[in-house]
Each structure stands twice: as C-alpha cells, then as structure tokens.
Write a structure and sequence with these properties.
Structural class: alpha/beta
Strand order of the largest sheet: 3-2-1-4-5-6-7
Radius of gyration: 17 Å
Number of domains: 1
CATH architecture: 3-Layer(aba) Sandwich
Number of helices: 10
Largest sheet: 7 strands, parallel
Number of strands: 7
Strand content: 5-15%
Length: 276
C-alpha cells in the first residue's frame, strides 16, 4: 500500500500562506506534524495570514503544528527549529524548502542588498535547512526533501531575463540535485517541484500583475496535491528529479485540471517563468 503522511513530521521554511500553507494543510489532513519557520508573526496588510493563522489551519484539519517565528537566513533559527521538531515529534521525515524571495529586476537595476537577500533566502537557506534536517532524515524510513524550484532551463530567454533571480532559484535546484546524488545510497529522496502555470499567491498578485495575473493562475492546491503525490512515494522510487506539478498529476491519471484554475477554465492560463 502507498504510504500516507499520518504521523510524519515535516519541517518547512515559510508556509504562512500560499503554496507552502496549501502543502502543509494537505499533509495535515493525514494527521502529519508540521513545523513552520516563518517571519510573519503579526498581520501585514500586504499579505494574507501569519505563521499563527497557518498553524491554526493545520490543526483544524487534524494535524499538529509547531510555529517557529524567525528568519530562515539565521543558522540559529534553523538549528532551534530542528531541535524543537525532534524534541516534540521525535524525528523529521520531510524537509520542504518553500521560502523564497522573488525579484525580477534586470542586472543593472538589482541592488547588491536585494541580490544578497535572494541568495540567502533561496539558495543558502535551502542548503542549510536541508543540512540541519539530514541527520534525522537519514534515520527515517521514508525521507524526503522537496524544494520549490524550477527545472534548469538554460535557454537565453530565461538566462538573460533576470539573472539575479535565476541564479538564486537555480541554486535551489542544483542543491537539491546534489543532495539526491550524495545520499542516494541512504535512500533519501530529493526532488524539486515547480508549477506549470502562475499560482494565485500574494507574490503573483503584488509583484506580477495583480488581479489580471491571478485570473490567469491556478490555485495553490494543485501544487499541494502534486507535492503530496511526491512525498507519499517510497523515497527510493523517485529522486533527483525536477518535476512540474501538471506532469505529476497527469502521471496519476488526472488529465482535466481545470478545477484548479481560478476562473474554472484552462483557456487563458499563463505559463510560469522558466518553462517554455
């Protein structure tokens, strides 16, 4: 029988809203334990929800939540979150690298501080959070690392579009492929997941076109369902892959995905960046 996530412990960067929260709630429906590391302690008018409302949503559907307020750029915060996860739940089975900073500025317009922020939150935090979880993942009977980052598309169209952001996101993907290669004999699954289309999140609404962009997007639930499919696969059966949500669900026999579209129709969906 295919395993579910009952009693499994997930450690996730971010997760207060959007795709991360959707993945967390989907896991919680099985009775998973979810440890969230996020900065949003107080409401922000630009953003939906806080780490505390996310924890409440996880517990409402039957999971257990541990909210760790802090910046994933901090090694102290990462170490504390991992220690708390192990102390409360007894181990770690899944590491989800969800936190990410989006900035599509061109090279000349991207300030050094914004470049450093993307590198620290995207690439460095992916490496350091996974590294901290690894001793516990490697004694799990179905260990998974899942990183929300794209396929490595080296087309000049993407390589030249927003170099700073591309480096930061591809760094997440490269780190994950590296974990898959390094720990393959240990049975660790390390995969990336990326949406085929825009996803209706605050980042899309605030940075990529507002209501018009959201109307061309799918719900975060499609990423949650695809992530669930990956995380419930035996770890030795799928690793080192750069996956796309739509393809994962198609493999399971779901051909009509229109129900995930914000408008209920796939007619005007916008393909996400890094995908041709």
């Amino acid at each position: 029988m295919k395993p579910d996530l009952s009693g499994r412990t997930l450690v996730m960067s971010g997760g207060s809203r959007g795709i991360g929260l959707a993945i967390a709630v989907r896991a919680a429906r099985d009775g998973a334990n979810v440890v969230l590391i996020a900065k949003t302690d107080q409401p922000d008018p630009r953003l939906q929800g806080t780490i505390h409302t996310a924890a409440a949503a996880i517990e409402r559907v039957g999971g257990q939540a541990l909210a760790v307020v802090g910046d994933v750029r901090s090694d102290v915060v990462i170490s504390s979150a991992v220690e708390q996860a192990v102390e409360r739940f007894g181990g770690i089975d899944v590491c989800v690298n969800n936190a990410s900073v989006l900035n599509l500025s061109s090279t000349l317009d991207l300030s050094p501080s914004r470049y450093d922020l993307m590198q620290d939150v995207n690439t460095r935090a992916t490496f350091m959070l996974t590294r901290a979880c690894l001793p516990h993942l490697l004694v799990s009977n179905n260990p998974h690392v899942l990183t929300l980052s794209p396929p490595l598309n080296l087309s000049p169209r993407w390589m030249g579009a927003h170099v700073g952001y591309t480096i930061a996101k591809y760094g997440m993907s490269l780190a994950t492929l590296g974990f898959a290669a390094e720990f393959t004999e240990d049975g660790l699954a390390a995969n990336c997941l990326w949406p085929r289309t825009l996803i209706a999140t605050d980042a899309v609404a605030n940075l990529l076109g507002g209501d018009q962009a959201v109307a061309r997007a799918r719900s975060p639930q499609i990423m949650a369902d695809a992530a669930y499919a990956v995380l419930t696969t035996p770890s030795r059966e799928r690793s080192g892959q750069l996956l796309v949500d739509e393809d994962v669900l198609n493999e399971l026999g779901y051909a009509d995905l229109s129900g995930y579209s914000v408008t209920g129709s796939d007619a005007n969906l916008q393909t996400d960046i890094f995908l041709d």
